[in-house]
Design brief:
The structure is a single chain. This protein folds into three domains: 96 residues, Cobalt-precorrin-4 Transmethylase, domain 1, CATH 3.40.1010; 91 residues, Rossmann fold, CATH 3.40.50.11270; 91 residues, 3-Layer(aba) Sandwich (Cobalt-precorrin-4 Transmethylase, domain 1), CATH 3.40.1010. The protein is built from ten helices and 13 strands. Strand 11, helix 9 and strand 12 form a beta-alpha-beta unit. It is flat, with a radius of gyration of 21 Å. The model has no long low-confidence stretch (mean pLDDT 95).
């Protein structure tokens, strides 16, 4: 079997950095309670590795403060790469708990650009997916920021204010190029003029372009990632759209491979989401090449 691993693969920079910070912390603070607010990464392998290192994950919901009250005062609270709401900083101050922020540098840069644009006398429009943690953190910067939700294709204005009829556009870093460009076209119809802020991250763009250029003689494409991962689902949709005559499947690891699917298949491409560890990709590659 001929197996091609599509590059780039494995963790993106932000995810790699966040996971390294978490595991390094455990090495330095061997006995200290460490809890992560929300999923550090949408990957079962990483989740299991964190659990084995006694790093707990707490789902962020309305009971988050009561949950944290159950932990000792030396607990270290870990914020993920997506960014987080300001109210959680205040909550941890009130609980006297220490925190560490593993926000992705690209997400941080994007948010800083948004803050610096708030007084530009233009509407600030953020292209993103509602309820995604990165989008929620960006919108939390200022209630005047308008969300263009790529799920519903609607503008969500949280407070009423007169429009400037001009806008500055920012976007979630994990959006597909199609969602991003389609949103830009719809926003252009609403405003007399728009300024498009520089995109802070091109990781998804590079991966999508690589997917589009997969050899057409390929017989099977594996998208490796969690079904809960935004970028994994975006890559899956891109593969299906650009290679509608090739079988495309999403799997999370080697154990998800259906042997019937690969019967009589001689050419396979493996695509990695930004939240999939290198080892998972390499395990799949080694398994397929051994057949």
């Amino acid at each position: 079997m001929q197996v091609e691993v599509i590059r780039p693969y494995g963790f993106c920079h932000g995810v790699k950095r966040a996971t390294e910070i978490a595991f390094d912390l455990r090495e330095k603070e061997k006995n200290r309670p460490i809890v992560i607010l929300g999923q550090l990464v949408h990957n079962d392998n990483v989740a299991q590795a964190l659990k084995e290192k006694h790093i707990e994950t707490i789902l962020v919901d309305d009971e988050i403060e009561n949950k944290l009250k159950q932990y000792p005062l030396d607990t270290l609270v870990f914020f993920t790469a997506h960014g987080h709401l300001k109210k959680y900083d205040e909550m941890l101050d009130n609980l006297h708990l220490e925190s560490i922020d593993a926000i992705c540098p690209s997400v941080k840069l994007n948010n800083e650009r948004i803050k610096n644009s708030l007084n530009a006398k233009k509407d600030i429009v953020y292209i993103g997916k509602s309820h995604h943690p990165e989008t929620e953190a960006a919108l939390d910067i200022d209630e005047r920021i308008i969300l263009f939700d790529v799920k519903t294709k609607e503008f969500i204005q949280r407070i009423k204010f007169p429009s400037y009829h001009q806008a500055i556009i920012f976007s979630q870093t994990t959006l597909s190029e199609k969602h991003y460009l389609d949103a830009i076209q719809m926003i252009k119809k609403k405003y007399r003029s728009i300024d498009i802020a520089p995109r802070a991250c091109f990781e998804m763009y590079r991966r999508e372009e690589a997917v589009k250029n997969i050899d057409p003689l390929t017989e099977l494409i594996y998208i490796v990632g969690s079904k809960h991962s935004s970028n994994a689902n975006e890559l899956y949709q891109t593969a299906c759209e650009f290679h509608n005559d090739i079988n495309v499947e999403m799997i999370s690891c080697k154990d998800d491979i259906n042997k019937k699917t690969i019967e009589n298949v001689s050419r396979v491409a493996i695509v990695s989401s930004a939240s999939t560890p290198d080892k998972v990709i390499e395990d799949i590659q080694n398994y397929l090449e051994s057949l």
